Amino acid sequence: MTSVIYRPKKIRWVAGPMAAAVVILFTVLSFGLTGNAGFENSQATFQRGDQLAMIGVGILIGLGVLAFCRPRVAADAEGVHVRNVIGGYDLPWNVVAAVRFDRNSAWAHLELLNDDQVPVHALQAVDKDYAVDGVRALRALHADATTA
Known about the structure:
Radius of gyration: 22 Å
CATH topology of the largest domain: PH-domain like
CATH class of the largest domain: Mainly Beta
Order of helices and strands: EHHEEEEEEH
């Protein structure tokens, strides 16, 4: 086994359509921003810029939803490279004590020699067998690297 790459599966099926739905919803809502701003004696009215801003907010929220597709774990004989929703880690195998996937955990963890834990969001419990296969592959690479 030379190298492996894993990305979450089910979240990608959910995040893509949800991001598109958010953008469509905010676009439809933007067309409702016309006329008076909602106050009885107000001189303020909605302008084209307000509609564009509403669409822009929808796009930003949609991009935020797509951020959940970002996690990835790549490992080879030298080490493991973890990219989570926010942040990432590049660790050699000699600092990793174990690859853990506890029964009630939402995702796998790398237990480090200094008792820290690094979450691996790419291997999520909702992906079931795919995540278990990923943990087994990481454990095999870890075992090969520590015995060498």
